[in-house]
């Protein structure tokens, strides 16, 4: 009997222990369900990379090309004038490579300048060229900086009407050929292709790709290697030459464009001698608002007017009511746009013109040169809400220029000089060169930031 009783006691103890364990499990499940679950947090890995600079390469256009001087071959091009080159020589001498100019008789001066990287630092390199032509079929002054090549450029300007002799200039400083696509926007679309050999410059008459277009805008796209695309223009009215120009391509459409240093002068009253804005909206109909303000003027001095834009069809507006002076032109679109302004100056029976393109934002030290020629001015525009101080070093002097918020200033700069521009905040800048009352000369171009000043890049997997 004692054995059986012992067995019962052991069995009962097991039952009690099992019940306790089961109750504990239930309690643990209940408490676990009511307790907050541990979260899994994954912070994305971010790596900040400073691009390794490459050699700085800029391309100079060289000779100004003239069409129609050979009565047998009207399309043949000859050199109308050679450039005077101004190079920033505050650092090591750049390496120079001459570009072949096989399609222009007497052509010279097309070249690439290379600033070589030293100790992972690329030099700030700048150069500019200017030329004056005084012939029976061509007269005027043209000037432009030497620019870095690009894979895509927009040429907003040019003319194919009677008396115009415009040439698209394609310069390939690379070691391999470039296949270049030329797309013309106008009342009808057109396209053409050109192959530019390595180390070569070629000219394409604008009339050959944009025949019949009164307001052409040209997109130049390079495959294989970046090129420099520019537009050389000359114009004859009746029998009188009325100017030449050298215009650079812009990088691409934007919602807001700033064009600086636009010259307005007295004109007889026709649109051909007024300030003329050409603007193109890409891919979509858009509404643009054009604001015009004298340099240094207050916000209340802005005159604004709307312009309706049809997708892919350039529009042109004459700003013929401006009083003589220097102006900033702001163009804001409801879709990305490209634009440029043609300005004309007169002195007696002489005339000259120049296209001014939009100025990009500059946030870091930038080098620029002013070529030889008439009086030159640096225009600075601050679109921000805070004042910006701009350091200018060059021309034998250093100075600080205050650019008020939302306003612009002008600073005289000496022709044939080299400069460094160092802003404390974002600014836009352009150079203009204008002759006196007895000498009709005008040229202008925006300053562009150097590829040397690339900002660090955040890389996320």
Structure in a nutshell:
It contains two helices and 34 strands. With 461 residues, it is mainly β. This is DUF5719 family protein.
Describe this structure in words.
The chain is globular, with a radius of gyration of 32 Å. The longest helix has 33 residues. A hairpin with a 4-residue loop joins strand 13 and strand 14. Strands 19, 20, 21, 22, 23, 24 and 25 form a seven-stranded antiparallel sheet that branches. Strands 11-16-13-14 form a four-stranded antiparallel sheet, with no helix packed on it. The protein is mainly β. The N and C termini lie far apart (78 Å).
Unreliable segments (pLDDT under 50, ≥5 consecutive)?
1-21, 25-33
Shape, principal axes of CA atoms: globular
Beta-strand residue fraction: over 45%
Amino-to-carboxy terminus distance: 78 Å
The number of distinct helices, counting runs of at least 4 residues, comes to 2
| Largest sheet properties | 7 strands, antiparallel
The protein's oligomeric status is single chain
Briefly note the structural class of the backbone. Answer: mainly beta
Radius of gyration: 32 Å
Query: Would you report the number of β strands?
Result: 34
What helical percentage do the residues reach?
Answer: under 10%
